[in-house]
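Encode chain A's predicted structure.
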Amino acid sequence: MGRHDSTRRRVLQVTGTTVAAGLLAGCTGGGNGDSGNGNGDSGNGNGNGGNGNSDDGNGGGDSGGDTAQFDGWFDGVSNYDGVTDATGESEVTVEVGAGSDGLLFSPPAIRVDAGTTVVWEWSGNGGAHNVVDDGGDFESDLYSEAGETFEYTFDSARTSKYYCNPHKSMGMKGVVVVE
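Encoded structure for chain A:
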């Protein structure tokens, strides 16, 4: 009887592992419904990357809500539904303190050309906010008044993740993709 239980336990263990691996494989495909067969810098052509050739592996259109595109950066960010294309504009404004509770950036993800100035403008909602580059390239002061602004010019191609320090854990995060 002990041997039968051991064999059954092993079969269930292998079956569970196989099912889990299959589910995970389905979650790591490309951002636009394909198998991730492009040459994005974050991908390897085997279902883990994007379908383009930009630094974020997205290569063009919106991600369709794929939070994996930025390594989970947008997990818990309620208004993220893809990257807003703002290429061709010399200046782009992002609202600070968006959403019903004032704890969001809007839009949360933008794509701009090198040389574009991004202006973050405070709404006056959600308390005091700041804008902090995750890589340490820029940081604003804390502001809470509507109409306050902070700006930064992105001179070269890169992906810049940023957040509000007091509200980062609540999902107040954004990204600027510079081409």
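The chain has a mean pLDDT of 75.
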